Amino acid sequence: MSVPVLVLAVSAACCLGFGFVLQQNAAQRAPLGDFLSPRLLLDLMKVPRWLGGMALVVAGMALGAAALGHGELSLVEPLLATNLLFALTLSRHQTGRPLGRQGWAGLALLAGGVTAFVVAGQPTGGRAFTDPLRHWLIIGGTVGLAMLLTGCAKRSRLTVGPALLALAAGLLYGVQDALTRVSGQRFTDGGFAGLLSGWQPYAVLALGVTGLVLVQSAFETAPLRMSLPALTAAQPLAGIACGVGFLGDRLRTGTGALAWEACGLAAIVVGIVLLGLHPAMPPGVAKSAHMGDVRMG
C-alpha cells in the first residue's frame, strides 16, 4: 500500500464521516412530505449546516476519487469504510457520551477487519475485463437490487425504511466508485474528449444525485444509527464486487487468504454495526411540518 493512497483514502473517510453527521443534523428536521423527492435537496440547500456537511462530503468524494486514481478499488473501499470512526468522533463531541465497551469493540473490529482484508488479500491491479455483458450484469444487478430496496423502503419509511434506503444508497455509491475509476482512466488516456465521449461520467453524476436523495431521505426519517451503518457497510462490498468483477482487481485466492479475507469483511460489517448503533450517534427529533424549523445557524 502506498502512503499517498492511504492518506487520500483516510482523509476522504474523515470528510465523509464529519459531513454525514452535519447533514443528518439538518435533514432530520425536514418535513416528511419531501421523502424521496428531489425537493428535499432544494429545501436543504437553504440550511447552512447541511451545506457545510455537503461541502465536506464533496471534498471526501474528490479525495476518494484521487485515491481511486492511484490505488485499486478493492484497497480503497475498505479504507473509506472507516468514515464511521470519524462520524462517531464528532457525534461523541456533540453528545458527550464515552465510547464504552461497545465503541471500543466496534473500533477494534473495523480497524482489524480492514487490516486483515488488505493484508490477506493484497489487492493488486489487473487488466480490466472488456466483455460488456459482464459489466452490465454486475452493474445492472447492483442497481436493480438498490431499486428493489428503495421500493420496499417506500412502504415502510418510518420502520426499516431508512436502513433499506441507506443500503440502496451504499450499493449505488459502490458502483459510482467503480465508474469513477473508469472515468479517471478514460481521462488519463484521452483527456476531456476521451472522458466525455463515454457514458461513465454521466452515470457517475446520475448515481451520485440518486444516492444523495436516498441518503438524505434516510437521514430525514430516522436517527443516524439506523442509516449510517447500512450505508457504510454496503458501499465497500459493492465496490469490491465491481473491482474484482469487471475492473480486473486481483485478490489472493489461496484457501488461507480467502478465509482471512472473508473474516476481515465480516469483522468490518460487525464493527460498522456496533459503531453505528452506539448511543453517541445523534438521536432523531420530532418531525416538523415546516422547513423553517431546520435552520440551525
UniProtKB/TrEMBL annotation:
Parts of the chain that traverse the membrane = 50-69, 103-121, 133-153, 160-179, 199-219, 226-246, 258-277
> What are the alphabetically sorted keywords of the record?
Membrane, Transmembrane, Transmembrane helix
Give the coiled coil ranges: none
Question: In the UniProt record, does the keyword ATP-binding occur?
Answer: no
PANTHER family, per database record = CONSERVED INTEGRAL MEMBRANE ALANINE VALINE AND LEUCINE RICH PROTEIN-RELATED
Protein name per the record: DMT family transporter
Q: Could you tell me which species this protein originates from?
A: Streptomyces pratens
